TrEMBL record, chain B:
It is found in: Nucleus. One of its GO terms (cellular component) is U2 snRNP. GO terms for biological process: mRNA splicing, via spliceosome. This is RRM domain-containing protein. Residues 14-88 form the RRM domain. GO terms for molecular function: RNA binding. The chain holds residues 1 to 88 of 115 of the full protein. It comes from Vitrella brassicaformis (strain CCMP3155). The keyword Nucleus applies. It comes from the Eukaryota. The keyword Electron transport does not apply.
Amino acid sequence: LTPDQLAAMRITREIDERNRPMTDEELEAIFPPEGYELVKPPASYQPL
Amino acid sequence: MSGKKVRLPPEVNRIIYVRNLPYKITAEELYDIFGKYGPIRQIRKGNAPDTRGTAFVVYEDIYDAKNAVDHLSGFHVAGRYLVVLYYN
């Protein structure tokens, strides 16, 4: 493994950790308990 | 949006906090403005006197969130300039 491959691997591992899917409970815990409402996606919304 | 192998500063994360939104902004408008940058996991809109005009937008991918923040800061919506920050 060359040094830059090693570095790329480390970045990937770190990004994957920060990008791992969050459960609803984790999301729930992050936000302030009141004052906010969930916005229902419009029927026309297709994720890219 | 393919994930680029570039290092991301620590404050970058998938949840962005938006201020200065028009009070009567609709779900369609929110998803239209923020959906351009990537799939959205969830949007929460402020509905209390002290949270009105603000929202949280959660992206599925951290690079999309970064892309949104980079492009949307100062975006002009209905006479207001959006303030877009990472929420942590």
